[in-house]
């Protein structure tokens, strides 16, 4: 089976997961719950890639383990945070712009779009898992970068959750812990995770998987991540302008004088 065919064989499984996500989110009238399923789309893709291999290599099992830890951790974190919360304001805006009939329109505007993006992001998983080449030093670097990214985003999410749960933090800005050095350390951790997976693919000779980390970088920094999140946060948190003046947006770095 060709590499392209093996990659495309994951698409029906991902679309089936998309339909399930759409059904759940529509029943709860909360399109924002799709965020819970995002990482699961990638786990489904990895399981599909493993299914295509006659005898899984050590690299394939390593990648599946890392994807599984990343996907289940992120899905669980978002489920705890969002399951009973109101629909995120970003999805409320999409809903308002696409009435009437948003429930059906969301199937392609929100859910199918995310599945297609996840399909592209899955490229390095396929490239790494389809290879029978033995593990090498670049695999170690890639795996360590994935693990470092996982630790960064887990710590950042834990710090943010504690801040949100503190009644005294209402209207305030989190500028301690990892958030002291980056305004979005959780997104930076995600950035590290996907460049780490690309290094694992590169170690297997799959240089062509480069669109995945590039796409994730653009999404995190310019589309659905930093840019979109900061569009109106200053209106909700008066001290955010000062925080922006002294703190790097994405890549961690020393504090600046405000």
Q: Give the uncertain stretches in residue-range form.
A: none
| Portion in strands | under 5%
Q: How far apart are the termini?
A: 58 Å
Main sheet overview: none
Mean pLDDT: 91
Q: Would you write up a description of this structure?
A:
- It is a single chain.
- The protein has helices spanning 3-8, 10-27, 34-52, 58-82, 89-97, 102-121, 123-129, 137-165, 185-203, 211-222, 226-229, 233-236, 240-246.
- By secondary structure, it is mainly α.
- It has one domain (3-246).
- Helix 2 (10-27) packs antiparallel against helix 6 (102-121) and helix 8 runs antiparallel to helix 9 (185-203).
- The protein starts with a helix and ends in a 12-residue tail after the last helix.
Secondary structure layout plus pairing:
Layout (H helix, E strand, L loop, with lengths): L2 H6 L1 H18 L6 H19 L5 H25 L6 H9 L4 H20 L1 H7 L7 H29 L19 H19 L7 H12 L3 H4 L3 H4 L3 H7 L12
Helix pairs in contact: 2-3, 2-6, 3-4, 3-6, 4-8, 7-9, 8-9, 9-10
List keywords for this structure.
258 residues; globular; mainly alpha; 13 helices
Question: TL;DR of this structure?
Answer:
The chain has 258 residues and is mainly alpha-helical. It has 13 helices and no strands. Helix 4 (58-82) runs parallel beside helix 8, helix 7 runs parallel beside helix 9 and helix 8 runs antiparallel to helix 9.
């Amino acid at each position: 089976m060709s590499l392209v065919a093996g990659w495309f064989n994951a698409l029906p499984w991902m679309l089936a997961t998309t339909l399930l996500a759409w059904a759940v989110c529509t029943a709860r009238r909360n399109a924002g719950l799709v965020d819970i399923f995002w990482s699961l789309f990638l786990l489904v893709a990895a399981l599909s890639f493993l299914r295509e291999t006659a005898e899984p290599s050590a690299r394939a099992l390593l990648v599946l383990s890392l994807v599984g830890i990343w996907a289940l951790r992120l899905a669980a974190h978002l489920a705890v945070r969002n399951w009973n919360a109101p629909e995120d304001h970003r999805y409320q805006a999409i809903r308002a712009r696409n009435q009437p009939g948003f429930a059906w329109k969301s199937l392609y505007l929100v859910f199918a779009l995310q599945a297609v993006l996840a399909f592209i992001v899955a490229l390095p998983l396929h490239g790494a898992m389809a290879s029978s080449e033995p593990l090498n030093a670049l695999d170690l670097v890639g795996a360590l970068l994935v693990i470092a990214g996982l630790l960064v985003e887990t710590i950042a999410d834990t710090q943010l959750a504690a801040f949100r749960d503190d009644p005294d933090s209402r209207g305030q800005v989190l500028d301690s812990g990892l958030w002291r050095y980056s305004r979005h350390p959780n997104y930076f951790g995600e950035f590290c995770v996907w460049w780490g997976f690309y290094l694992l693919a590169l170690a297997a000779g799959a240089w062509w998987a480069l669109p995945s980390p590039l796409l994730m970088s653009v999404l995190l920094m310019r589309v659905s991540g930093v840019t979109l999140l900061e569009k109106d946060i200053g209106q909700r948190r008066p001290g955010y302008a000062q925080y922006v003046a002294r703190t790097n947006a994405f890549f961690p770095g020393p504090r600046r004088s405000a």
